[in-house]
Amino acid sequence: MEVKIAKFVIDGGGQLKGEIRVLGAKNAAMKMMAASILIKDKVLLENVPDILDITKISEILIKMGAKIERKIHQLLIDTNTLSQTEPDPHLVKEFRASVVLIGPLLARFGQVKISHPGGDKIGRRPIDRHIKAFQDLGINVREDSGGYLFQKTDKLKTLVRFEKISVTATENILLFACGQNQPIVIENAAIEPEIIDLCQFLKKAGAKIAINGRQIIACANNLKAVRHQVIPDRLEAGTYAVMAAATKSELKITQLIPQHLGAFLAKLKVIGVKFEIGPDFLYIKKPENLGATKIKTAEYPGLATDWQPSLGLLLTQAKGTSRIEENIFENRLGYLEELQKMGAKIKLINNHVAEIEGPTKLSGANIASLDIRAGATLIIAGLIAKGRTQISQAENIDRGYEKIEERLQKLGAKIRRIP
Hints:
By secondary structure, the chain is α+β, with helices and mostly antiparallel strands. Helix content is 31%, strand content 25%. Strand 15 and strand 16 form a beta hairpin.
């Protein structure tokens, strides 16, 4: 997709109606694209969303020599001609998730040089845990002003134990392990649904992977061609659920996996949102009374940090004083300052804790999208606000939501994109 600097203009106050489909999980699809480096054959991924983050990692792989063809929601990837071991520095600096390329490139070529990965506005995310994990395996890591050089040695070790759970570091070591003949043990690993889906993808390609609680044991040799359908995006599903509840609408959200929404649905129930769960859908009913609660983020199976912003917005419409505790990222509460511009009654205690008083009527304002989930949250805020809301930096939302304005227009939302 073409990257264009744009804004969203929303006229709020209306309700939504109909159904909306959940697309593929970007956090699974991107890691499978990285995993294709390990497979000297064709990889076919299905249910891949047409979003900016997928475009960015595609550009990185293509510049390294890979061939990628897109057809609607399919990607055909061939990395047999991959020759470079240094991802384009400019693209890496724009794209934080590029850090997950270290594991497969190191496994295939024995070394990789990568620039300092770019960050975003939800807080610093240094790659210290990645570095330490690779060093624990006997990998030499050197850092200079330009970035990092990872080099495999002949003294490979077989155990990594994370002191603190890290999703991308778990994925990085898992991908490295799937390029080794001897099993590597990962302890205190992240076990998000996207990681489990990545494991299923790798097993289809011939990897040997065993998961026992938070322990993952993996190895592989000569992975083969694979076809895989990416799981639905649970984070996107959560956005639409809150959107329905906040706008007091009835909405059917289809093609999702309810089991992946456990902690989120439990919190919705506490707040007072009524819903029906089907085998692959979620039907949000028009809420009557919303009540205050406490939001506390945690690693899966806890409440995902990506759900926190939309739930925070919903709590501005709930009666009483709510509390948010963000335990994953240091600056993920920045969106609350944008909501304050719209009239929300919020007390920011520190970078991790905030209190919200509700219910509060929001008014349209000129606000900015700080990141993917904050941006989607502000769209919801615009939909329930009185008057017109203008959201700048729409490209941040495009990173994780495919043509969101077109999809919401079909539900009755008054939203449009302008230059």
